[in-house]
Amino acid sequence: MGEYFSHWIVLMFIFLTLLIVSARIRNKVGYNLIFMNQVITILASMTIVCYMMYTVSPDVIERFHSRYLYITNIFVIVGIIRYLQIIFVGVKNPIHTEVLLKDHFIQLCIIGLGITFCLLHCLAVSSE
User: What is the number of alpha carbons within 13 Å of residue 88 lying toward its C-beta?
Assistant: First the structure.
């Protein structure tokens, strides 16, 4: 059986990319700030929903041997909320790729996501 990516994770990365691009152009001249804030909020929501659907998808549960992957949703939710806080409240024109690499809270969310995902997978495999 060939390896493939879940359509949910592909959609999540598409929405995440659109979110980062929208946040980047948010303060450019000619864009309505209220409209761009709404676009960013919708894209953030869609990113979260796609990740949630990924974690409860039967093929992903079967591949990782764990039906508890949904626990990792918390890291994605709080990480995106932190990103939105930086965009809407924090620095006026942040360099968005640097935010992902330099913000300690977002780094902890990414590390927590990875560790939790691996632990859930390892626990499920060892219990079989």
Answer: 15
